[in-house]
Amino acid sequence: MAVTDEAILKIKKMIIDGRLRPGDRLPPEKELSESLGLSRSSLREAVKALEIIRVLDVRRGDGTFVTSLDPGLLLEAMSFVVDLHEDASVLELFAVRRILEPAAAAMATGRATDADIERLGAMVDSVDGGTSIDSLVDHDVSFHHGIAELAGNHYLTSLLDNLSGGTLRARIWRGLTQENVLERTLAEHRAIVDALALGDAELVRARAAVHIAGVEDWLRRAAS
């Protein structure tokens, strides 16, 4: 395990143990590095990585603080960063989603009723600028499940649900770190619903592929 990843795990354990809570200020660098048995350089790298994913808030001249985000989200994001460096299999999950979900969306096009399309549109409309990251992820999961169900193939729906479950931490990390992720997600979901309303299966397939590929591309660049 990389020294930086070890440092991240040790800070994560402090949060799990309750020694650090959202809003708390981290001890001085020298004190923290000694208590964790880490070099100051590796601790600095860990703090820098955790600042990028918004687990820590570095305030120049004031100190470093644990963010006020939900503790569950903080821990998921920290685990994902470490796991991604050790195992990039989540990229393979997104590659499979990119193959299967556009096909499922195209299958759903001929089966979706006006009521189905209205329901999907209402799901998109229910999310606004004040939506939390965990609520956005819940919306994303429900939206994709709703389209998969409309394909009318229970095995395909179950497979896609399983694939979706394996990408939850990646979605949380994206929500924490990517600029304008809420607006981008909603715009792409709305574009898929609009294509469904037109009854154009190939357009639906294309827009679903662009949506999944965009997330996959972001993750691939973030992991490099």
Automatic annotation (TrEMBL):
**Which keywords does this chain's UniProt record carry?**
DNA-binding, Transcription, Transcription regulation
Top-level taxon of the source organism: Bacteria
Which residue ranges traverse the bilayer? none
Key word Ion transport present in the record?
Answer: no
HTH gntR-type domain spans which residues? 1-69
> Which Gene3D superfamilies does this chain map to?
GntR ligand-binding domain-like, Winged helix-like DNA-binding domain superfamily/Winged helix DNA-binding domain
- The protein's name is FadR/GntR family transcriptional regulator
The organism named in the record is Gryllotalpicola koreensis
Traced from the root, the source organism's taxonomic lineage reads: Bacteria, Bacillati, Actinomycetota, Actinomycetes, Micrococcales
